[in-house]
Specification:
nine-stranded parallel beta sheet, single chain, 38% helix, 529 residues
Length: 529
């Protein structure tokens, strides 16, 4: 069984001419001399490296389409007909109080100083890609009014066109970073926070010093990697002078904008874009501990870490080092991950898939706990999109996992709300939207709730933010329903016993009993009387 179809994807704008395709290579069975297009091999024959990436850049996010043998669909949630566990606020375990609107889905993370969130989700890293920059107001305000954490990704200062540097080549002024932090903080209400990520270049530029000195941020996030790729962050730029500027700032830029042949190719119109790449990090225990200590001395109250779908070794390093350093949150990002800019083949062909990676994380966390070490609060990322995912992650990862990191799923409502706002102005609503109405009040089911809360400030809340709030409300209600069905009325009482494996292979990987064995002992006791 082939797990993906290579060589043709809407992500790269490519397709097979033939209906018959070789499963392994993705080449047409009958490759025709004279073919007018257009598989990836065909397109790469004259556009080369451009075909490595999903596109058009800045207009799409992409998620890999490899169909892994086991994923979270191989787990089901148990439902029970008796009991009500974890009821709070004086509620009683009876039919009048044990209703799904009373389920508490708030969560918190942190070693000592906790951060609360209204829903156990937060955004993926929204960094230097155009899709993040253009939609930032919608994403940030949406996260703030939803009461969840927003992650401002790597390289934001480094690619800021208005960046000003000191004589020591450190950030003196970054209007883009200022905009990002201030937009979120304006509507922040004490739930969630804004995390700024740092990679190699960010550290060299002094981003941590800038965001704490100017904005007083309490938390900073170190970046080891992500689930979408195993190399550093990337963006595309179209102007050769802009590419040269980024190279001068210390980034890896390809093709080399200072090379003579590249300059000529740019003048000819053949070379139309340049890639800016971040450097690979080199992790050691000593360097990690030293950096954590440095950041704490700067004044950060919390330090978090984001790591990717690396091997078991790096996962063990992340868990052990974070436990020793008392890291406040470790986010583990599994393959395939989503992206605003990552190599398409790499997204499909590298890394430990999310379910496998989380299962390993739980196994390793148990081992550290048995050794007397406290495991930091954990979050899982890597392809999630609905409330069933949230329940399964928290149950499979109990008691260590506190939240789910959602990338593209939380970006969609932001982009859609922005587009609805524009479509209304243009009197050009698509039928898929206009069937619900033609005004903001008619279209957005939660609009009046937000208007009632924010009053005249509603004018400053973009529709993309309202879209994210509305989607977060759906996640909250859906999660409450699932939890009530399994008689779990707060997140802390969800456990691995609330899941069953639907396949023997899933049971082997996760340690969650097969459906035909889950609770069998208890059932047999009842049958025996």
């Amino acid at each position: 069984m082939n797990l993906r179809r290579p060589n043709a994807s809407t992500a790269t704008g490519t397709f097979n001419r033939s209906r018959s395709v070789v499963p392994m290579s993705g080449l047409c069975v009958d490759c025709l001399d004279g073919c007018r297009g257009g598989c990836e091999v065909w397109l790469a024959s004259f556009r080369g490296r451009e075909v490595l990436y999903p596109g058009p850049y800045g207009e799409i996010t992409a998620g890999a389409d490899k169909n892994y043998p086991i994923d979270y669909s191989h787990l089901n949630i148990h439902g029970y007909a008796v009991g009500a566990v974890g009821m709070t606020n004086g509620l009683k375990p009876d039919p009048d109080d044990a209703i799904f609107p009373n389920v508490d889905v708030e969560t918190e993370y942190g070693w000592n100083k906790k951060v609360k969130m209204r829903v156990p989700v937060f955004t993926g890293a929204l960094g230097s890609t155009d899709i993040a920059r253009v939609n930032w107001e919608h994403f940030s305000v949406g996260a703030a009014i939803s009461g969840v954490t927003l992650v401002c990704g790597e390289n934001v200062c480094g690619i800021d066109p208005e960046l000003e540097l000191t004589k020591q080549n450190k950030v003196a002024k970054s209007p883009e970073m200022d905009r990002r932090i201030e937009t979120y903080n304006r509507f922040h209400e004490g739930y969630g926070e804004i995390l700024v990520q740092m990679n190699v270049e960010d550290t060299r530029l002094g981003v941590a010093e800038y965001v704490i000195d100017k904005h007083g941020l309490n938390t900073i996030e170190l970046k080891w990697g992500q689930g979408a790729k195993c190399i550093g962050g990337e963006i595309k730029v179209k102007d050769i002078e802009r590419a040269r500027e980024l190279k001068r700032r210390g980034y890896v830029v390809t093709p080399d904008p200072e090379a003579r042949d590249v300059e000529l190719g740019y003048q000819d119109g053949a070379i139309r874009e340049f890639e800016r790449h971040s450097r690979l990090g080199f992790v050691t225990r000593e360097a990690f501990m030293a950096e954590v200590e440095r950041l704490r001395k700067l004044g950060f109250e919390r330090i978090t870490l984001k790591t990717g779908a690396y091997s078991m070794v790096e996962l063990a390093m992340a868990l052990r080092y974070c436990a020793e350093a008392e890291i406040d949150l470790l986010t583990i990002d599994g393959a395939p991950g989503g992206t605003g800019m990552s190599p398409w083949t790499m997204m499909n062909e590298w890394g430990i898939p999310t379910l496998y990676l989380q299962s390993l994380a739980v196994e390793f966390a148990d081992k550290l706990t048995a050794k007397g070490l406290r495991v930091p609060d954990l979050a899982m990322a890597g392809g999630f999109g609905h409330e069933g995912d949230i329940y399964k992650v928290l149950a499979l990862g109990s008691p260590y996992f506190k939240a789910v990191c959602m990338g593209r799923a939380l970006m969609i409502p932001g982009m859609l709300g922005k587009n609805i706002e524009q479509w209304i102005k243009e009197d050009n609503l698509p039928k898929s939207v206009s069937k619900f109405g033609t005004t903001v009040e008619e279209i957005f089911v939660n609009f009046e709730e937000i208007k009632e809360k924010y009053g005249k400030d509603i004018k400053d809340i973009p529709l993309g933010a309202i879209g994210i709030f509305t989607f977060a409300r759906k996640l909250r209600v859906g999660l409450r329903q699932l939890m009530a069905g399994s008689r779990r009325f707060s997140l802390g009482v969800i456990s691995r016993k609330d899941l069953m494996s639907l396949t023997e292979e899933c049971a082997k990987i996760t340690g969650i009993p097969h459906v035909m064995e889950s609770y069998r002992e208890e059932a047999e006791e009842i049958l025996e009387g």
